[in-house]
Amino acid sequence: MKIRRLGMPRSEVSGEKEPGVARMNCRLRKLMVLVLLTGLALTYGYALDMVNTQALTPHAPIKIDGNEAFTLENGVTRGSGTDADPYFIEGWEITGREFGVIIENTDAHFVIRNCRISGKDLEGIRFTNVENGRIEESELEWNIAAIVLEKSLSCTIYGNTLVMNGPHISLSESFDNKITDNIVGDCFGCPCIQLSRSAGNLLYRNQFRNDIFRGACPFDSGANHWDGGYPIGGNFWQEYEGKDEYSGPNQDQPGADGIGDTPFAIPGGANLDRYPLMTPL
User: Fold this and answer.
1) Cα 215 to Cα 236: distance, rounded to the nearest angstrom
2) Beta-strand relationship, 139-141 and 272-273
3) Quick one: average pLDDT of 43-54?
């Protein structure tokens, strides 16, 4: 799905060329939008949810292609790549503008933890043909795309804060991944989270807190699971308008249980969050 960028020059829509002054005005409009959205994000308290970045160390963008590229030079701080002792890439604030972390063609176990990645012209984090990767307790903001999984499986995205990206999470031809306990704020364009040609992925206990724009507007054209069953529940959706008057697996027993009585439909196919959460966790 094509994402329209904020502040798009008229020439990109009509095909007409604009003079240099008009292009400069367009850049100024983009800057003004960014300043406005930053203020709104702070107003709604996103900054309170972000990871503690005081102890982070600057590091150049990281690109790993193959298991043998998990090295100290590529940001690995410890580990041997096994299930019991995974490689760790942690404690970094990734500098530069192009991308943050790209990992390709690996099946070693690894964890990206407590990193901050912002302002990238491409992806903050991208996995391509990756198995056994994990992204946790990291902060990604103001990236063209925050987290992208392509042809990847058995990976985990846990406990991250994602704000003002577009989209936040994107899966393509990826299977049996787990996405839980993330704080997902506003994003540029729609959808904020998208799954295409992917199946068997599990998403629950995420907070889709879209206060400024119209909502998370997820998209899923595959066969995936948007809740952890009852009583674990599904996800919190800012735009969910259902009531909580009943409880139980079928939501037909008297008494509220913190779970919406009606499912939240996921556009793009027949997927449902059967047990949407009424309040953020």
Assistant:
1) 11
2) unpaired
3) 47
